[in-house]
Amino acid sequence: MLRFQSVVFSSLLTVSAGSWAAGPNLLVNGSFEAPNAVTISCYQNAVAGNWTSFGPTTNKGSCAVESGYSSAGLTWPIARDGTQMWFVNFQNVVGTKIAQTISLVANTQYTLTFSLAGIDGNAVAPNVNVAIGNGVGSRNFTSTAGASWTDLAWSFTPLTTGSTTVAFTAAAGPVNLDAAYLQVGAVPEATTTSMMAAGLVILLGIAARRRKGRQV
């Protein structure tokens, strides 16, 4: 019986892990490893690493930043994925953004996941607006002040098929992005994950009681 329980336990782990498995990333250079940053390399109204950087003339646009870069009492995060991240708004200018054009299919569910962080030495919490075309709309996401990453997700279904733009626009504070991933499908619902966890706890409890019974 214990062997059967072990098999069931293993199967549940496989299902749980499989539900989180990622498909192909529809975003190019979502980990922002290109272009190669020389500590910090900024781009204003230019294409860099498959992302177009838009910034007002009052600042330097957005920047590729090396992991853990420090300057003038400010320290950037350790990269969430790889060795670089993207600093959307140099000098914290609101409205600076990066964007990439992709293709979406109507009535198909997609999930966008990404990580958001601020800068140590800056007390303003980062806030970024994410806008997607084809009838999807936009949402604001926030993290805590400082250099700690917050992992975020947005599942959506476009109304029309065709090319569209995914844009990240700085809304407040210093906005650092990393690990941007867009795939077909939805993230597991919290209730499903909770049910899996509850099932594992029950099985572990049964196994523990049977072991205890054999020892008596």
How is the secondary structure organized here?
Elements: H1 2-19, E1 40-43, E2 46-48, E3 51-54, E4 62-66, E5 70-71, E6 74-75, E7 84-87, E8 97-104, E9 110-117, E10 127-132, E11 137-142, E12 150-156, E13 162-172, E14 176-184, H2 190-215
Antiparallel strand pairs: 1-4, 2-3, 3-8, 4-7, 5-6, 7-14, 8-13, 9-12, 9-14, 10-11, 10-13
Helix pairs in contact: 1-2
Walk me through the structure.
Residues 1-21 and 189-194 have low confidence and may be disordered. 20% of the residues lie in helices and 37% in strands. It starts with a helix and ends with a helix. The protein has helices at residues 2-19, 190-215, and strands at residues 40-43, 46-48, 51-54, 62-66, 70-71, 74-75, 84-87, 97-104, 110-117, 127-132, 137-142, 150-156, 162-172, 176-184.
In short:
The chain is α+β, with helices and mostly antiparallel strands and 216 residues long. It has 2 helices and 14 strands. A 6-stranded antiparallel sheet has the order 1-4-7-14-9-12, with no helix packed on it. A 6-stranded antiparallel sheet has the order 2-3-8-13-10-11, with no helix packed on it.
